[in-house]
Amino acid sequence: MNIKNLQEIKKYRMKQKLSRKKLAIISGVSPRTVERIERNEKENPRIDTILAICNTLKIPITKLIK
Q: Largest CB tally within 10 Å, which of 3, 30, 33, 56?
């Protein structure tokens, strides 16, 4: 599976007025991981991590799949 445009996560997070820390707490992902994913600094993030974030933000993962 090829995930693209992870910066979209930031757009959805900001729309919901969540901080990175709050998103991390709710999704069970570390704040540093959320930051690295949003900045596209994390190569090949784990699918379960992306799913946790997508579920928290209530966005379909298909929005991020190429």
A: 56
Check: CB of residue 20 under 8 Å from CB of residue 35: yes
Domain boundaries, the chain: 8-63
Q: What is the pLDDT along the chain (66 residues), one digit of tens a residue?
A: 556 678 789 999 999 999 999 999 999 999 999 999 988 887 778 889 999 999 999 999 888 876
- Look up residue 28 and give its two tokens: 């069970």
Cα separation, 10 vs 5, in Å, equals 10
pTM above 0.90, yes or no: no
